[in-house]
Amino acid sequence: MKKVISTTNAPAAIGPYSQANLANGVLYISGQIPVDPSTGKLVEGIVKETHQVMKNLEAILTEAGMTFKNVVKATIFLKNMDDFAVMNDIYASYLDAESYPARETVQVSCLPKNVDIEISMIAHQD
What we know:
By secondary structure, the protein is an alpha+beta fold. The chain has a single domain, classed as CATH 3.30.1330.40. The chain has two helices and eight strands, in the order E-E-E-E-E-H-E-H-E-E. The strands form two sheets. A six-stranded mixed β-sheet has the order 1-2-3-8-6-7, covered by helices on one side. Strand 4 and strand 5 (41-42) form a beta hairpin. The longest helix has 18 residues, at 46-63. One of its GO terms (molecular function) is 2-iminobutanoate/2-iminopropanoate deaminase. Its EC number is 3.5.99.10. Belongs to the RutC family. One of its GO terms (cellular component) is cytosol. This is 2-iminobutanoate/2-iminopropanoate deaminase.
């Protein structure tokens, strides 16, 4: 059975999708972009953008009763691969080194609202 996960502590979906779906103990989180849910505005610059995306993901995980330790897979989309090192350091700061998820990072030509980063995740309940 599927349960839709939604929180006001992360940006509302801006299209025909859910923030996340929980099915059979697996949480599928939609790609998050750097929108500050308290203002509805985009933050700018790869440092602020990466922090905001991770905070948005954390809010959705929290709503589902999980943490970053539950994440088994992440997909990162960057507009510019030159931002990889900065993004990677910030991304790692939110995670436990003992439970890093599998991941891929790809450069894309454009992202929603022309942001620099988008991250989606899959987590599993223990």
